[in-house]
Amino acid sequence: MKEVVGSPPAIVRNDVAAVQSLFQQNVVPSYGRFDIVLSHGVGSYLYDVTGKRYLDLGGGIAVSSLGHAHPAIVEALTEQARKVIHSSNFYYHESQGRLAQALVELIGPGKCFFGNSGVEVNEGLFKLARKFGHDKGRFEILTTINSFHGRTLAGIAATGQDKVKKGFEPMIPGFRQVPYNDLDAMAAAISPATVAIMVEGVQGEGGVTPATPQYLLGLRRLCDEKELLLFMDGVQCGHFRTGRFQSFQRILEGTANRFLPDGISMAKSLGGGFPIGAFWVRTPYADLLSAGTHGTTFGGSPLACSVALGILQVIQRENLGENARRVGDFLKNSLLALHEKYPTIVQNVRGLGLMIGLELTPNIPNLPGEASKTQAVRFANLLHSAGLLAIPAGAQILRFLPPLNLRRSEAEEGLRIVESVVDRLAA
Ligand SMILES: Cc1ncc(COP(=O)(O)O)c(C=O)c1O
Predict the structure, then answer these.
(1) What are the residues whose beta carbons fall under 8 Å from the beta carbon of 107, sequence distance 6 or more?
(2) How far, in Å, CA of 77 to CA of 121, rounded?
């Protein structure tokens, strides 16, 4: 194993400017990037090419579920690569079948389809809904304001944020948005063409806002009454991030309700950094996408599924859902204490498990950085300088989406860094 995993190579002789210039000349500038050139990672830490260490509480936007260079992921990758990496979906292979079985066991009776990213499996659910409604002329999918469902044409049409749509109009038809956590607004929006509703259990990009139990239960009732499919986008908030496999399981704890949506999309933490997406669809609808109606070359490859299975084994063996709940609650409560101590800097803290948003107050007077950048980006820059990575969401919010195996001592280290930055701004 040792020679396979050897130490990471120096990148362009560890020259920050040289790497950045490779990007400037050759990479489409569709991302606003921070001034950090990464080299490698270990556990909850990432290192840049200058040797600076960062505590990675961003987790690659909720992806690095076991942190960096986890031996189980390295082993699954290398073991499976020695056998077969890819075979196409013309053939059966064990790991796709076993992964589907594991996901079905974690959710409920149904079947799974595998893709490569979050937006791709959302598209799969959109197609499933269209197939379901086709013969009755129903095609419209209702989503929510501030939602995020991905960057393809259907993804941006489904997403409830104007900034992702701007410049790409006209939107493809069949998507409308209504306010989140507002059951009356959803009920009022249903038209004869409506076939499905899609919501995130916890809105991520929109600012880390959990759904209320009443909202989820009400959506289920509404969908049953009107014969609509209820989809949950679990791409960011799923895979034990909230302390349970899916966020609705955590949100509905204690309600004694056997809630199940009709479809769930998954990606991000499922592959721990290896690209994989999946959707689960509930039994009555599980055979709607019959042979030849949907597919993708790479989806559910032996390599992707072996990695996802390896990750799932570690999460279950080490009870990392419980860890996400415990360390997440500690982190959130400690950040709430910062809100109490520094109300002029920290306006609010919300989230579930290891999906936490820290909302800054508007117009923090001595926040350094260019005025053209959002407060969230400028605050993130301060955190980076102090050795911590966190992910901006919108103009005012920093997201913490760390590995599910984050230690309490690492959470404490992160809190010390956040407090040092907040304290400096409050002075
Ligand atoms: C809730 C949600 N859905 C879908 C997506 C799109 O996933 P991907 O970027 O893998 O296409 C994201 C990505 O951030 C997301 O947070």
Answers:
(1) 245, 246, 260, 264, 280
(2) 23
Q: Is the pTM of this model over 0.90?
A: yes
Tell me the mean pLDDT in the region 128-140: 98
Nearest atom in ligand 1 to 203's CA: 1
Token reading at 235: 């791409």
pLDDT at 2 over 70: no
Tokens of 311: 């990750």
Compute the distance between CA of residue 231 and CA of residue 228 in angstroms, rounded to an integer.
10
Q: 236 CB less than 6 Å from ligand 1?
A: yes
**pLDDT on residue 271:** 98
Mutate to test the pocket of ligand 1, among 152, 235, 248, 276 (most ligand atoms within 8 A of CB): 235
- Between CA 190 and CA 140 the distance in angstroms is 9
Would you say the CB of residue 146 lies under 6 angstroms from ligand 1?
Answer: no
Tokens, residue 78: 């290398």
Instruction: Please state at what angle helix 94-107 crosses helix 302-317, rounded to 10 degrees.
Output: 40
